[in-house]
């Protein structure tokens, strides 16, 4: 540890399956006080729930255990605390496995864990629906802090908010209480920037050509006692930390002015970003308000079974070929074998006069869903295969039809924070009850003020992405889409040009959906929520891009009338 004025917290994982070597790299490439890792997402909780069904001793992120086999000794040598949510649905078991691992390695490591997020055993008492595979409350950082204060070298949690992995160590270091709302809010913002790993250092960044992102490093937050921070990375690692990369991550899967959490409501409309030199961005000015009286709970259930068949249509008459397949398929499936849902999607990936067969081909995708696995299994595949010599010219499939598979559905509920048994289990086995915030409030979001419009002038038809960045993602069945301008002039145009109505025009898939726009002037950004775009969530694979990861890039590729003043600016040429 350092002198206490700055807490250096790094991240080595943004999801279950992230770069395995990142833990070692973060421990060896420079100094740290704490190394965090986020292994959980809505889809991950479903995967872990299915693991637990097969074997009750599972339900945690096994990758983390293998990473610790390589790096636990290194972390202890460097006095770096490890805080991760890799415990998933079984944090107590992962803590046991880590203690056993430390013993085999001959490493002195005090392991603690946080529990209480698992609501499934108390489903009826809490008024949650039946048929759930998992039900987990999003806990805050005070449980993590209690573990660290109790002497832990490694803390594993179940479902906590992603930012809690940063907030907890900051509480332990600086002694914050529930009354330190601004400081807590600053740590939440820093935690949100760190949680997705390399997305803060140039990964998935709209203007990726400006930096070498072949192998971006992972981010670090240098936190201070007032909650301010500097986002950076280890010297010499790839990627970049800029106000743009930090803005993109701040907009990712958030919403309007108030970012609700179990410890504090962070005011995103108060965030100030300041570049402090190469790969250093200061975050300050963040205001906090009392958290809501309820905790968000993620609910996962089995939605049914799904299957898909992809037909390849090549050359001429693509639309007519697709129509023939649909008509033949309707006749091939008897009514009693027809799935509850059949969805056809034609992707016109074909080029005219193409130099390769693949470039001359389009893809017709059939997605089928039904509670009965038999209705998306053999009969569906049989109906497709039997068209092989009786269908359109050039008939073939991308792959033979499979047997179908179960899919999950994610939804969110809210439970009384006082009803959740948030518990820190210390290295010596003591169990510490972690009370909820004593003061809560219902947030009253405020709408940011629009800037003065850019004066009227000549325009040119061009892609939005020449003058604006975007990042998008999923929240259950909804899609989040943040768009930001790179200059003040760009903001004066974007804030007035990219309305809800214009967004629906540019993204026809959202034409009939509820769309909400939030204005964040400090970030020169508008953040949209497209309600229902993703159907029942990522596991249900409702659309081509089930997590809306590329929704922002689709928007940036769309053409509209843009002032030439912006298009001729240096930023647009990059």
Could you describe the 3D structure shown?
With 574 residues, the protein is an alpha+beta fold. 26% of the residues lie in helices and 26% in strands. It has 15 helices and 26 strands. The strands form five sheets. An eleven-stranded mixed beta sheet has the order 11-12-8-7-1-2-3-6-4-19-20, with helices on both faces. Strands 5, 14, 15, 16, 17 and 18 form a six-stranded antiparallel beta sheet that branches. A hairpin with a 5-residue loop joins strand 11 and strand 12 (281-284). Helix 1 (22-28) runs parallel beside helix 3, helix 3 packs across helix 4 (91-105) and helix 6 (164-174) crosses helix 7 (181-194). The mean pLDDT is 95.
- Order of strands, main sheet, comes to 11-12-8-7-1-2-3-6-4-19-20
Helix content: 25-40%
**Average of pLDDT:** 95
Net shape: globular
Q: What is the number of helices?
A: 15
Summarize the model shown.
The protein is 26% helix and 26% strand.
Task: Please give the structural blueprint.
Blueprint: E1 7-11, H1 22-28, E2 34-37, H2 42-54, H3 62-77, E3 81-84, H4 91-105, E4 111-115, E5 132-137, H5 142-149, E6 154-157, H6 164-174, H7 181-194, E7 219-223, E8 229-233, H8 243-251, E9 258-259, E10 265-267, E11 272-275, E12 281-284, E13 287-289, E14 294-314, H9 318-332, E15 341-347, E16 361-370, H10 378-385, E17 396-397, E18 405-416, E19 423-425, E20 431-433, E21 459-463, E22 468-475, E23 478-485, H11 488-497, H12 500-506, E24 515-520, E25 525-530, H13 551-557, E26 559-563, H14 564-567, H15 570-573
Parallel strand pairs: 1-2, 2-3, 3-6, 4-6
Antiparallel strand pairs: 1-7, 4-19, 5-14, 7-8, 8-12, 9-10, 10-13, 11-12, 14-16, 14-17, 14-18, 15-16, 19-20, 21-26, 22-23, 23-25, 24-25
Helix pairs in contact: 1-3, 3-4, 5-6, 6-7
């Amino acid at each position: 540890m350092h002198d206490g004025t700055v807490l250096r917290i790094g991240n080595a994982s943004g999801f279950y399956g992230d770069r395995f070597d990142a833990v070692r790299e973060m421990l060896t490439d420079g100094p740290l006080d704490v190394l965090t890792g986020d292994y959980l997402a809505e889809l991950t909780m479903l995967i872990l729930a299915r693991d637990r069904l097969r074997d009750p001793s599972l339900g945690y992120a096994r990758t983390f255990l293998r990473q610790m086999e390589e790096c636990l000794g290194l972390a202890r040598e460097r006095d770096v605390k490890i805080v991760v949510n890799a415990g998933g649905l079984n944090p107590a078991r992962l803590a046991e496995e880590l203690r056993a691992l430390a013993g085999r390695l001959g490493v002195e490591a005090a392991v603690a864990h946080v529990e209480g997020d698992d609501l499934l055993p108390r489903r009826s008492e809490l008024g949650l629906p039946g048929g759930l595979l998992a039900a987990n409350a999003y806990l805050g950082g005070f449980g993590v802090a209690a573990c660290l204060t109790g002497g832990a070298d490694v803390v594993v949690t179940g479902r906590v908010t992603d930012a809690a992995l940063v907030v907890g160590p900051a509480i332990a270091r600086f002694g914050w209480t529930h009354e330190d709302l601004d400081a807590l809010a600053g740590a939440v913002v820093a935690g949100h920037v760190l949680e997705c790993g390399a997305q803060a250092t140039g990964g998935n960044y709209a203007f990726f050509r400006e930096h070498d992102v072949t192998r971006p490093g992972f981010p670090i937050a240098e936190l201070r006692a007032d909650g301010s921070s500097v986002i950076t990375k280890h010297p010499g690692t790839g990627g970049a930390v800029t106000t743009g990369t930090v803005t993109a991550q701040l907009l990712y899967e958030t919403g309007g002015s108030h970012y609700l959490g179990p410890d504090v409501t962070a005011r995103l409309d108060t965030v100030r970003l300041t570049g402090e030199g190469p790969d250093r961005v200061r975050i300050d000015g963040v205001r906090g308000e009392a958290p809501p009286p309820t905790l968000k709970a993620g609910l996962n259930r089995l939605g049914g079974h799904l299957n898909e068949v992809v037909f390849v249509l090549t050359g001429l008459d693509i639309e007519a070929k697709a129509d023939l397949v649909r008509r033949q398929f309707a006749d091939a499936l008897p009514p009693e074998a027809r799935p509850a849902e059949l969805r056809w999607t034609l992707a016109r990936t074909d080029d005219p006069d193409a130099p390769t067969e693949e470039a001359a081909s389009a893809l017709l995708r059939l997605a089928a869903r039904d509670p009965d696995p038999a209705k998306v299994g053999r009969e569906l595949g049989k109906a497709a295969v039997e068209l092989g010599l009786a269908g359109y010219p050039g008939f073939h499939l991308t792959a033979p039809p499979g047997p179908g598979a179960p899919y999950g559905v994610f939804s969110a509920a809210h439970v009384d924070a006082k009803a959740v048994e948030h518990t820190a289990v210390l290295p010596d086995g003591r169990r510490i009850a972690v009370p909820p915030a004593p003061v809560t409030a219902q947030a009253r979001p405020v709408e940011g003020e629009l800037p003065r419009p850019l004066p009227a002038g000549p325009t040119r038809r061009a892609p939005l992405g020449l003058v604006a960045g975007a990042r998008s993602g999923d929240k259950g069945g909804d899609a989040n889409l943040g768009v930001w301008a790179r200059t003040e002039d760009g903001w004066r145009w974007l804030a007035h040009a990219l309305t809800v109505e214009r967004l629906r025009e540019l993204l026809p898939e959202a034409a009939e959906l509820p769309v909400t726009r939030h204005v964040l002037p400090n970030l020169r950004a508008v953040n949209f929520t497209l309600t229902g775009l993703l159907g029942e969530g990522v596991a249900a694979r409702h659309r081509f891009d089930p997590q809306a990861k590329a929704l922002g890039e689709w928007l940036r590729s769309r053409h509209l009338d843009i002032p030439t003043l912006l298009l001729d600016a240096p930023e647009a040429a990059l």
